Amino acid sequence: MRRLTAVSWIALPLAGALALSGCSSAKSTGDELQIVANPVAAGPAVSPAVSVKPAGQVLPTGSVSALAVDPATATLVVAVSEPPSLQLYDLNALASPAVNMPLYGKASRLTVSPGRVEVAEPQPGVVQQLTLPDRKLTETKVGGSPVSSLVYGDGRLVAMGAAKDIRVLPASGPARTIGGQLYSADDVVDTGKGVVVLDRLRTAVFSVDVAAGKVGEGLRAGDGAANAVADSYGRVLVTDARAGALLAFSADPLILRQRYPVPGGAYGIAYDARRSLAWVTLTGRNEVVGFDVRGGEPVEKYRFPTVRQPDSVGVDEKSGRVLVGSAAGEGTQVIQP
């Protein structure tokens, strides 16, 4: 059967199958979600050489570790690996030179809220906030290796990677930590109906009760959960890099609603709320695909050739333009569907 959709008669047996597979491995691991003794986080498939000219325009940004778009200020923010820095482009004047802003270390993830971009830098243990349009960077030293930061209420939630927890940073007062059950806290997503944390080592997602300070129920997220994003329907969309799939989980309650096959090394993901499009990069094929996710299963609307190793993707919701970053140093691609 090629497609599994969101109907309950499929979702419930699938959940049961995951639980049974977990129980069979629990004899050796003691963990109902872990299926191997020594889990390894999924990474992107290695891209072949580019055989088709990338669609759209390519900006000479170098090697990209993360990117994001602030639609409110029409700003493209590209995190460059070497030297660690941010390159800021005006989306309305891409021919103009980028503004370069040095970082302490390589950024692992950029997360946008209106007029603000959260910059997680694992190596120096720093989270920085880039405010726009004034282009001001403000640092917060959190220690450890923060891999993702999200504005939440008047504070922030920081996924602490190998520390196996989430740091809650209020606007004022002491920080607190939410942990338990996690093998790694690799991203934190606010769906509007609940907070979910992605655990790449366990290839799973967990609900998080921020007020109570608890990590709640967890579900397997395929064979190699890689990246996650919230959509407009209270769900978390997750790419499965190993099995080649796009997964959709409701957050409250945490239930797997959809599993759709996406062969070719599904990895990076971004969401266009205005058009209900999930953009997924296929690193094994040097492609980016746009899926309409409004219905019972994703519907492919667009497919474009990309730069090599398209690990990062973002979207400008105002224009619908898609931005793809090459981790192999081949620049940042701007595509108008």
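Second entry:
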Amino acid sequence: MATRVLLVDDHLVVLRGLKFFLNTQENIEIVGEAENGEEALKVVEDLQPDVVLMDLMMPVMDGVEATRKLKEEYPEVKVVVLTSFSDQDHVIPALQAGAIGYQLKDVEPDLLVDTIRKAAEGEKYLHPKATDLLLSEMTGAQKTTTPLYTLTKREKEVLEQITLGKSNKEISSHLFITEKTVKTHVSNVLSKLDVHDRTQAAIFAMKNQWFEKA
């Protein structure tokens, strides 16, 4: 089944270029375009996209506000930010608003496609600069370190696989457990580490060097 994508950008040249390129990709369908966040919110219900590819700096309503409102009204819709900005004042608010992906407009085309596909599957994919800023933000905000021993043996195994970038399906196959069981363990890990998503859990584990090989 094709991933349905809504393009949101105030530059028509960008919209046309994205539409032309993404329409050549297998299993990706461009269902519509919007030139600002407010317009995007108006058409989401009718177009029912799986992923919204969102610019940040737009008139009427910017991408951060649009992402926040979109996630409140349509939590199942995934937002991938595509922007020219990689500074803390843009990255952190966008991720806090609920964006699952963050890429810069000079991204390799194939990587953008990969980001969209991963987003549709519920996996976060960030530009390295965005990941670095998120790590810095977490380092500053995380005042205490959750001991590794608070996790069960299986939760540790699942978390280690998460740090390797494995999907629930891949973890299920590697650990010989069902995907439903994996989801339960992931939920428990996020709760115990007091983080919001898999990416933050992975960064937290790596920051504390929990799975570094000797």
